[in-house]
């Protein structure tokens, strides 16, 4: 069927051509050169032809898949539903009867005054934009609902698709303008990450120097002093806190894995001392890091600062406290810090 | 009755003696049975009976159209029933007390005043106001039909409602159903010559009007539930509008449950309106924040959440159809069992409710909610999962929570493909309000809508489309023609249908030879309109004697007029199918239906327990016996119109062939041809729709041509109840429709052309000999 539609019947074309042909010419038209003949018929032997017809017949006879059927069914239905019967050919006898009763198009029902009737014909009846409902001129549409989607889901989905499409268009528009901006942003991000790393390095230096100083003191005094977190200067307190938190989490995880699937803090009232010993719970293995649970507004405030500021502060702290220049990587003997070119990294370039 | 009362002149209450003697005639057989002196109709005749021991009806003092609520109350309070003269029962006074508590009762006088002042009245009363039972009685006490001989009719859209309301009102008036108060529905008439107040389906009143264009039997016609806008109610309204001009003495009351009454007022020449508040409580409405992916799942979840967290009160869930409802019931019951085990929830009874459910199961919805599982435990509740029949027609007390997914199955007809089908569609705003209102019947309630507020505002239409816009009008057009409506195009309907729908109807009736080319009723059309059947069925029945099988076609017609007789329970599908296979006729479903019916009658004659027999054979006793009843009614109509009842002898090999041919005489417009030799797909004639044969069929061999009873549209397009036919018959039986020049080019046309050619050759050969 379909092949016939695509290929215009060759015979008729040839008829047309032949009028211009020179009858007296002794040359025979080579069918293979005829541009109107399609490939399938070009130089087709009877065997080939039979094969082609067989293949076509097979294609026709192949049972259609469910999806194909459904699509075809719907296409037919939609085609029929969108075709008004009033204009279809041949004219229906029903319409002729209605014409006899005075039907002249438009809607049915009580005759309205002329003016209104005209209005109504413009307005294509139905649930209308106009204030009054006009009688309908079209049958109610058939909408077939598949599945159990709730009311509004369909339109919500359509809305989302529309919005997505709009957003995509918007993005495409913006993309050009953003190209330069993108490079700038990447540069800024890389810079921020570098500053952050330097800040952490500065903290580590501060801690190392502080510990060295303390050890010197201890050796002199011979006592051990533990320091609460809050006693650590804010510039490198974050480092210690983060480390301790990581350590606590590791410990808790370990305890949990060991602790017979109970939270380590769980106290069983029925367990006596012996049970506890037997279960290896003689000691409470969990040490609550009370310090860590406390809020530290000072640190939070500090952490909220941009990385360059935090780096500046830790550098300044090192200089003032230990006469150490982060950039020279050198601890100067006095506060004049002779030989150091300045506060900032650029100064050391 | 109709003819005798028609003879009566209209008169007011002050009827003279001669008039009443006529009335006496109409009551002749009754009064013979009764003590004449006790007959309240005649009480006013026997002047001497008034004093002394005779019954003195309080109604004697009444003056038609001038009565008051007080007078009526006195009559109602009297010891003797004013309508029968018998003493009132205890039950009567008990009911009377509850009646006086109904909201409409307070406005009885107001109603009467308005009723006296106008010909047409629009009455709005929400569900629970008591309008359906009370207003007709108020009219009865004012209209005094026993004096005028003009009945009061009150129409109902549904058969069941007409029957149950009539029973209720008979109880309220302390009379026997079928006497003073009766009902009339298709295939069943429970009235007598003494009937004063008649409940009936709207379709039934329409049928009566075909023989009585002025509805002269009635003094007052009440159209109840007009807001439902059934096809028949819409036609009745248009007719009554015309009749009201001709018969100034006819009173009309249009009753509606919704506040959309203005449309009715405008339509009925700006008729006055009386509104009575219903007995309703506020209902809080909840929407979902997001549209639901699966409304059934969301509905089940919502019901369970209500059960888990809301205080006592029953739940009403609206779904679309039997299958869905049964599924939901199962899921809810299972989940509730879990909840009881795991979190000590209260018990819950879950009841389905849909039209095809047997009545005794429908009754279960009125059962009390279950008691707590133990003393002091969490209260039980019931959950009713219903189609939209619970929206208006049934009132269930105790409902506090309503879950509304927003869908219902709605009939839809499109003339362009000629498909009339039930499709799941979104409900209207009006419908959603009605559903919500169900939660506020006993106390303040909650309604959970399973859609967003935005979707409610934007996606739901305002009002449900009236049935007239959603139906095939072939039957209606035939009725209208019979009702004497000439100009169908300008017939003043409230919502005129699309012109194409009308065109299709006229065209179909023309092909069925019920209307001639001028649109006039033919003799066949006249006869067809006598049958309360679709024109195709009626024509098939009327022409069946020509095929020597009117007995069989009568049976098939009856079987097609009732719901499916096959029972196929979920837990015994295979057995049911096996049983059905016993009745199967290889040529098709129509013949299989006939076989089952014959077997049923055989079992009945053999003196078997038919109910048991039906149960064993997976047949519906209810539907088979109602088919039997329909058959008897149709048979009576056939006999009145001298339509022969004949059969081909069963031994004759043409027995089934004749039946198959007779089917085509009515259903030649419902034929499909197989698309190709190895396909299961059929193409409908002329409409070119692709269809499959419904899986319920018994047909196993793939026939090339089939006639079908209905075209159903679900997610697929099916033809249901099919029988094998031969294409030659089409050209022979319906040459007008199968005029090949009117066919569009295509496979069907070429196939039929080949058939025509073959016939021609065969005839030529015969002629040659």
From TrEMBL, chain A:
SMART domains: DUF4187. This is DUF4187 domain-containing protein. Residues 296-348 form the DUF4187 domain. Transmembrane segments: none annotated. InterPro entries: DUF4187, GPATCH11. Residues 1-149, 165-185 are annotated as: Disordered. Signal peptide: none annotated. Residues 54-79, 138-149 have a biased composition (Basic and acidic residues). PANTHER family: G PATCH DOMAIN-CONTAINING PROTEIN 11. Residues 35-46, 82-91 have a biased composition (Polar residues). Residues 109-118 have a biased composition (Low complexity). GO terms for cellular component: kinetochore.
Automatic annotation (TrEMBL), chain B:
Residues 19-36 have a biased composition (Basic and acidic residues). GO terms for molecular function: ATP binding; hydrolase activity; RNA binding; RNA helicase activity. Residues 302-484 form the Helicase C-terminal domain. It is an enzyme of class 3 (hydrolase). SUPFAM superfamilies: P-loop containing nucleoside triphosphate hydrolases (SSF52540). One of its GO terms (biological process) is spliceosomal complex disassembly. The keyword Metal-binding does not apply. This is RNA helicase. It comes from Achaetomium macrosporum.
